[in-house]
From TrEMBL:
Domain named S-adenosyl-L-homocysteine hydrolase NAD binding: residues: 236-397
Record has ATP-binding as a keyword: no
GO cellular component, as recorded: cytosol
InterPro entries per the UniProt record, alphabetical: Adenosylhomocyst_ase-like_sf, Adenosylhomocysteinase-like, Ado_hCys_hydrolase_NAD-bd, NAD(P)-bd_dom_sf, S-Ado-L-homoCys_hydrolase_CS
Cofactor: NAD(+)
Source organism per UniProt: Darwinula stevensoni
Associated pathway: Amino-acid biosynthesis; L-homocysteine biosynthesis; L-homocysteine from S-adenosyl-L-homocysteine: step 1/1
Designated name of the protein: Adenosylhomocysteinase
Coiled-coil annotated spans: none
EC top class, as a word: hydrolase
PROSITE patterns reported in the protein's UniProt record: ADOHCYASE_1, ADOHCYASE_2
CC cofactor note: Binds 1 NAD(+) per subunit.
GO biological process, one term: one-carbon metabolic process
Length: 477
C-alpha cells in the first residue's frame, strides 16, 4: 500500500488543520504520553457502544462542550441541519469519512447524520485529531477511529475500520486528501465500484482525482468542493485577512502601525493580507509578476515594486504566491536587523529556508514556530514557522470559514447521492453554482442581511431564473 507522503501534514486545505494540531485548545496533551496504543485498549461508551477507537472516551464531556462552541460560529451548517432535517435527503447514504477530526468537522458529521446518513469516520491527518472531540463523537454512538499521534500503520488501520465493517457497504466517500478513496480503490475494488459519489475537499485529493479521470481509471462520480467559489473566497481572501495579523501578533507581539511590509503576490491571499495590514496602518509594498494583479494593487493604493527595491528597508516580508524561491538567501542577506519573514502560500519553498542552513548562520529558537536566524555581524531575522504557512502554524481558522466548507461538502453529498442516473458521468465535477449560491445564502441570516429579489420584468431582461443561478460559470467574483 502506498505510504503516506512526507508532506501529509501540510496538504489540503485540509490544511485546515495543520493548525489544529498546533494550537487548538486541548487538554489532551498529557495523556498523549500514555504508552498504550488505543488499539490495545478495551473501549466502551457509557451506553455500552464499542464500535470505535479513540484515545480516551472519558474526555467526551469536554469534547461535547467544544462541539457546542463550534456550533455557535457555524450558522450555515446549523441552518442546513434545521432546514433539511425533516426531509432526510441523505437517508440511505452510507458515508466513509476521512477528514480532520475536530470540533468543526464534528458539527458536519452530526449534521450528516441528522440528514439521514450513516457514517464511519477516520482522520485524514495523524496530528490534527482533537481527542476530546473524537471521544464525544464515540460517546454519542458514532463509529470514529482516530486519535492524535497515530502511527502510519494506525492511520491506515483506522481508515480500513471505516471501510470494512460488518453489514456495511459504503456508498459515499467524504475525503480530504484522497486517502479513503485510495484505500478503497486499492484494497476493496469491488466495494469501490458500488460507491455513488466521492466528495473531495483538498487540493491534493482533487489533483489525484483529475489524474485518475485523465487516465480513465475513475469509475465513480467525484465532486471537487475545493474549487467552489464560496469556499475559495473564504479560505483564501477572508480567512487570510483575519489570520495573517493574528498569527504575526501571536508569534512576535509586533505592532503594525507604521510598519513597512512587503507582500509578494497580489492574488486572493495577498489581497486579504493587504486589506488587514492597511487597516492597521502599515505601509504596504507589493511585488507581482502579473500586470493585472499589479494594476489592481495600484488601484488599491499600494506601491508595486520589485522585491529588491525595498528589501533593505521593510520590517515584515510576507510571501503569498504559491511559487518557489520568491525570497532568496541573497535577499535575506540584505534585510535589516529584526525583519520578520513569513509565508502565507501553500508551499514551504516560497522562502528559500534551506539556504539559511549554512554554517555561518546561527539559528536560535525563540518560541514555538519562531526562530531567530543570526548573521555573523549580529544581524538577525525573525523567521516564522520555518517558512511553512504562518497562519495555519501560528493561528487558527475561524469556525465560520469551516461552516462554509462544511455546507459545501454536505450539499455536494446530497447532490451526488440524489442525482438521477445520467446526470453525472464518472468524472470530476464542480458543485453546481446554484448550490454555491445556496451555501452563501445559508450564512446571510447571521448578519441580518436581506437579499433583493428580481422582479419578473428584471429576470426576463437579464435572462435569469428568479431563483438563480445569478451568474454564468465564467464570472469572476
Ligand atoms: N494561508 C492560507 O490559509 C491559504 C489559504 C488559501 C490558499 N493558500 C495558498 O496561498 C497561495 C496563493 O493563493 P492565491 O489564492 O492568492 O493564489 P493566486 O494565484 O490568486 O495568487 C498568487 C499571486 O502570486 C503571483 N506570483 C507568482 N509568482 C510570483 C513571484 N515570483 N513574485 C511575485 N508574485 C508572484 C501570481 O501572479 C498571483 O497573482 C497558494 O499557494 C495557495 O495554496 C493559503
Amino acid at each position: 500500500m502506498r505510504s503516506r507522503p512526507a508532506d501529509a501534514g501540510h496538504r489540503s486545505r485540509g490544511l485546515i488543520s495543520l493548525f489544529i494540531g498546533c494550537v487548538s485548545a486541548s487538554y489532551t496533551d498529557s495523556d498523549e504520553e500514555d504508552d498504550v496504543s488505543p488499539r490495545e485498549k478495551l473501549q466502551k461508551s457509557t451506553k455500552g457502544f464499542d464500535d470505535f477507537c479513540v484515545r480516551n472516551i472519558n474526555q467526551a464531556p469536554f469534547g461535547r462542550r467544544e462541539i457546542e462552541i463550534a456550533e455557535q460560529e457555524m450558522p450555515g451548517i446549523m441552518a442546513l441541519r434545521k432546514r433539511a432535517g425533516d426531509d432526510k435527503p441523505l437517508k440511505g447514504a452510507k458515508i466513509v469519512g476521512c477528514t480532520h477530526i475536530n470540533a468543526q468537522t464534528a458539527v458536519l458529521l452530526e449534521t450528516l447524520v441528522e440528514l439521514g446518513a450513516c457514517v464511519r469516520w477516520a482522520a485524514c491527518n495523524i496530528y490534527s485529531t482533537q481527542n476530546e472531540v473524537a471521544a464525544a463523537l464515540a460517546e454519542a454512538g458514532f463509529p470514529v477511529f482516530a486519535w492524535r499521534g497515530e502511527t502510519e500503520e494506525d492511520f491506515w488501520w483506522c481508515i480500513d475500520k471505516c471501510v470494512n465493517a460488518e453489514n456495511w457497504q459504503p456508498n459515499m466517500i467524504l475525503d480530504d486528501g484522497g486517502d479513503a478513496t485510495h484505500l478503497m480503490i486499492k484494497k476493496y475494488p469491488a466495494m469501490f465500484k458500488m460507491v455513488k459519489g466521492i466528495v473531495e475537499e483538498s487540493v491534493t485529493g482533487v489533483h489525484r482525482l483529475y489524474q485518475l479521470s485523465k487516465a480513465g481509471k475513475l469509475t465513480v462520480t467525484a465532486m471537487n468542493v475545493n474549487d467552489s467559489v464560496t469556499k475559495m473566497k473564504f479560505d483564501n481572501l477572508y480567512s487570510c485577512r483575519e489570520s495573517v495579523i493574528d498569527s504575526l501578533k501571536r508569534a512576535t507581539d509586533v505592532m503594525f502601525g507604521g510598519k513597512q511590509v512587503l507582500v509578494c503576490g497580489y492574488g486572493e491571499v495577498g489581497k486579504g493580507c493587504c486589506q488587514a495590514l492597511k487597516g492597521l496602518g502599515c505601509v504596504v509594498f507589493i511585488s507581482e509578476i502579473d500586470p493585472i494583479c499589479a494594476l489592481q494593487a495600484c488601484m488599491d493604493g499600494l506601491r508595486v515594486v520589485k522585491a529588491n527595491e525595498v528589501i533593505r528597508q521593510v520590517d515584515i516580508v510576507i510571501t503569498a504566491t504559491g511559487n518557489k524561491n520568491v525570497i532568496t538567501r541573497e535577499m535575506m542577506d540584505k534585510m535589516k536587523n529584526g525583519t520578520i519573514v513569513c509565508n502565507m502560500g501553500h508551499s514551504n519553498t516560497e522562502i528559500d529556508v534551506n539556504s539559511l542552513r549554512t554554517p555561518d548562520l546561527t539559528w536560535e529558537k525563540v518560541r514555538n514556530q519562531v526562530d531567530h536566524v543570526i548573521w555573523p555581524d549580529g544581524k538577525r531575522i525573525v523567521l516564522l514557522a520555518e517558512g511553512r504557512l504562518v497562519n495555519l502554524s501560528c493561528s487558527s481558522i475561524p469556525s465560520f470559514v469551516i461552516s462554509i466548507t462544511a455546507c459545501t461538502q454536505a450539499l455536494a453529498l446530497i447532490e451526488l447521492f440524489n442525482a438521477p442516473p445520467g446526470r453525472y458521468k464518472s468524472d470530476v465535477y464542480l458543485l453546481p453554482k446554484k448550490m454555491d449560491e445556496y451555501v452563501a445564502s445559508l450564512h446571510l441570516p447571521s448578519f441580518d442581511a436581506h437579499l433583493s429579489e428580481l422582479t419578473d420584468e428584471q429576470a426576463k431582461y437579464m435572462g435569469l431564473n428568479k431563483a438563480g443561478p445569478f451568474k454564468p460559470n465564467y464570472y469572476r467574483y
